[in-house]
Amino acid sequence: MIAVSSCLLGEDCRYSGNNNYDRRITELLEDEEVISICPEVLGGLSTPRPPAEIQGGDGKGVLEGIARVIDKEGNDVTVSFIEGARESLALIKEHGCSLAILKAKSPSCGSRVIYDGSFSGNKKAGVGVTTALLQKEGIEVFNEEEIDRIITKL
Fold this sequence. Notes:
- The protein is α/β, with parallel strands linked by helices.
- The chain has six helices and eight strands.
- It is about 30% helix and about 20% strand.
- It has a four-stranded parallel sheet with strand order 2-1-5-8, with helices on both faces. It has a two-stranded antiparallel ribbon with strand order 3-4. It has a two-stranded antiparallel sheet with strand order 6-7.
- It is globular.
- It holds the Pfam family 2-thiour_desulf.
């Protein structure tokens, strides 16, 4: 069983109300059992919602209490991001997933690079909150830009 970001599967759950449908991912996984997760929705955030970025670190720092997730309107949404990560982990464990394919650059799902917290489009090395929790629990996390690496794990 593989966990996949809902937005990559075509669900309109992005902050903007749209999705990030990725045909390559759905084709790659057509013979696999998949569960769809959106940590931000699982954490109680609405769709659409203001964009959010991690300030003061990355997802690991959020889990350690040294970084915060702030939306573009200045609201601290850290609690929702942590709750969404916990709910995602619970679903992944319930379904026995050992692999997740999550949305690149997301403050929840990013697995290599995330936005830097300035809302200027700049990026920095780091992981999102859900990815940090999943990795801590031994779940391997990839993003949609790593098709070649994903293929070797299927």
